[in-house]
Write a structure and sequence with these properties.
The protein is of the alpha/beta class and about 325 residues long. It is built from 13 helices and 7 strands. It starts with 9 loop residues before the first helix and ends in a 15-residue tail after the last strand.
Length: about 325
């Protein structure tokens, strides 16, 4: 079993954060947030790059990630067992110099069969990031309605066979032994999907959908982005690495929405005269061919970087509501 986790876009993410004007200047006691500690790759790189008087707060829902984080002996570092959606509870508004959100799951979570994330390794159908609370995927599948199951698989997995899969799951519940393992679910899905996409296991979208739903990943992302915007100091950086279109769409739309001010249609205003929003879009970065070659799990990654604008730029912070 491979327990090695390679953080995606490691150098690029660290550089994007450190290029914040706040960290370039002699700003005292800068605070950074790593919203997803994972196995600590980004956190350790940041601790090796920031000044001695800076601080780094990391979050994770995964109990094993928390255990790994506690191995770090650095007075500048604090780990919190919670979703990054709760970051506002641990920092004051306009107090943060940078926020990094590395979305998705880590390699150890996928590789450990007992976590229930993998459709290639048999294990309990769990899928919870935080194994101390909430329903497992098996518990939910064995009590949810066919409509609810189909909705989750369609909405979060973009699976066009969502309804047939949901019906097959309900039919399986009529048997004495309900779904309890990952391979049982993977085989059930494979039996429903006759036309397979080249290079993709038929269970990929279903497993993605259930993982996102069970862990409320998209809800947490929306809350985390808003909290980051409020917590960042002017000049602070927001760096987000996403791994599928649902995540990236939310990040892209959020950054775009807060980078320009909406005005009522029909007003005689030229685009260049529009007041600016709270964020300046900095970059969109994809992994290099070399990184993808070394780490195939990086192939779908997208990193988006935005910077909070400052009052000194003469830019307007409030957004006008379109009518």
């Amino acid at each position: 079993m491979n327990q090695t986790h390679r953080p995606v876009l490691l150098a690029e993410a660290v550089t994007a954060l450190l290029e914040s004007p706040l960290l370039q200047a002699e700003s005292p006691k800068s605070i950074l947030i790593d919203g997803t500690f994972g196995r600590g790759g980004h956190t350790r790189a940041l601790l090796g790059a920031i000044r001695p008087d800076a601080q780094l707060i990391a979050f994770d829902k995964d109990v094993q990630a928390i255990a790994e984080a506690k191995k770090i002996s650095d007075s500048r570092f604090q780990i919190i067992h919670s979703s990054f959606a709760s970051m506002a509870q641990y920092a004051e508004s306009a107090s943060i110099a940078g926020v990094l959100l590395d979305l998705g799951i880590s390699s150890p979570q996928v590789d450990e069969a007992e976590r229930g994330f993998s459709f290639r390794r048999d294990g309990p159908l769990d899928m919870r990031m935080n194994t101390t609370t909430g329903l497992t995927a098996a518990q939910w599948l064995n009590q949810a309605s066919v409509d609810d199951i189909a909705h989750v698989i369609k909405a979060y997995g973009e699976e066009r066979f969502a309804l047939p899969i949901a019906k097959a799951i309900l039919a399986r519940r009529e048997l004495p032994q309900p779904l309890t393992t990952t391979m049982e679910l993977a085989n059930l899905v494979a039996g429903v999907i006759k036309k397979r996409e080249p290079g993709q296991d038929p269970a990929t979208r279903t497993f993605q959908a259930l993982r996102i739903f069970i862990n409320k990943e998209l809800d947490d992302l929306a809350l985390g982005l808003q909290a980051a915007l409020e917590l960042l100091k002017p000049g602070g950086r927001l760096v987000v690495i996403s791994f599928h279109s649902l995540e990236d769409r939310i990040v892209k739309q959020f950054m775009q929405m807060h980078s320009a001010v909406e005005v009522p249609r029909g007003l005689p205003i030229r685009a260049k005269d529009l007041p600016q929003g709270q964020l300046e879009l900095i970059s969109r970065v994809k992994p290099s061919n070399a990184e993808v070659s070394e780490n195939p799990r990086a192939r779908s990654a997208v990193m988006r970087v935005a910077q909070k604008r400052s009052a000194e730029d003469g830019l307007i912070y409030r957004r006008q509501v379109s009518q």
